[in-house]
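Q: Predict the assembly, please.
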Amino acid sequence: MGDLRALSVTQQVGLLFMTIFGLLVLTTLVALSRSLRERTAAQQATYWRFRRDLRAVWAGTLLFWIAWASGAFVSTLVFGVLSFLALREFVTLTHTRRGDHRSLLLAFFIVLPVQYVLVAMRLFNAFTVFIPVYVFLAIPVVSALGNDPNRFLERTAKIQWGIMVCVYGMSHAPALLLLDLPDYAGRGAFLVLYLVIVVAVAQLAQEAASRKFRRRPVARAISRSFSWRAWGVGIGVAGAVGLVLFWTTPFDPLTALAMGLVAGGAGTLGEFVMKALKRDAGVRSWSGQPSITGAVGLLDRAAPLCFAAPVFFHSVRWYFGV
Amino acid sequence: MKLPEAAGLLLAFVARLITGAQGHWYRCPPKAEQRIYFANHQSHFDWVLLWAALPQDLRSVTRPIAARDYWTASPLKHWITREIFNAVYVSRQRTDDEDPLEPLMEALRHGDSLVIFPEGTRGHAAEPAPFKSGLYALAQAFPEVQLIPAWIDNVQRVMPKGEVVPVPILCTVTFGAPIALRPEEARRTFLDRARHSVVALREVV
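A: Predicted assembly structure:
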């Protein structure tokens, strides 16, 4: 570990990415060689699911690498585009009316760019209040000017919620990259990676646990697999992984554990909430086969991160008092 | 690369960015055959969406129909429809000695594919309006050209009537199995069957 600390920040991050890419290449090669074997239909289905997830991991890792390697401007841009695509998917699945047109334009072409410009300029105070305060007052006004009282509150709430998850939540990921912590300058990539790993592990652990324990689901109409025990296992594992990874973060071990618990908990709950939203929209799965709208499942994958990132970001800021 | 080509690529990119413009080829692969695509019509954006959903090498041989008086009114409109889309111009004023379908027949004789919206005008109801008879005349005159139904979904939400700026919302274009004019088939029967083949695609995705 001492040798690692002697390296410069850039070398450390580079090493980190090389390790991850190495692991990915290895996994892909193993998967490829196994794909040559004969299989039953069930195994085939599992394999396809695995391949899809692997491709998503590849895409995500490449994205983070590009974001880190090309500096603040490009990384903000990359997350901005991601945010745009997620919001597009969200709006497609919620039923908006003609009167919402202007509010949606405001959301896509003004709120979203401004939020990411605020991130890129590191105006963290403005970035924190811009959407919850100003945009939330502006959207209903624009919607009301659309002259359509039908289901007004419901429509406004949908748009505001979409902005909250897809723009506000997502924008905290590049904010983490750009956050300057004492003695931790330039290593935001580790923080983002810590967050992503912890959230992903929490999800996987929760899923495995729900399959193993088969407890009574808390909310059967929304998710058949979500139970408090599985959720507890998920955040427990997230905390443990957070503790193991403490050396990549600016935290001491106990704080790393707590941060893991918080981020894992928020992420898995975010996934749960997205399931409710999908049920409401009448879509069973956004990933896999394209649904009626052609939604490709980006929101599905990004939602846990969108929920966990703001909570994590603000926990970090409070902890360091910056 | 020339300017119209670059502008076309840019336009297709923007259309895909805003709407996804996903083409679902359902029982009909995208092939470089001579075809007439016919689709439901709800928005000015329909043509661009269908065009962007086509593979790039099919775009240059697939032509839209444009009203001559409107689309040649300004130099920009004329340039876009002529250079980027290679549109077939038709005049909306009927004259006695001229068949309004003649420019379309000319394009088909030339070997090009066409996209037509047989409702004739943009509909705002959930169901497409009854089809006009142009499709029947073309099917009669060119029995060897494939007739491909297409259902354009969600586009009315992208740009409602009276708005100028499109909202990013995902749209799909579903292409169905080709239909053909049956021997001795009456005009109305054929047009209803064609309309039904378009509406049926709403359910498949």
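Residues 1-69 of chain A form one domain. Residues 286-294 of chain A have pLDDT under 50 and may be disordered.
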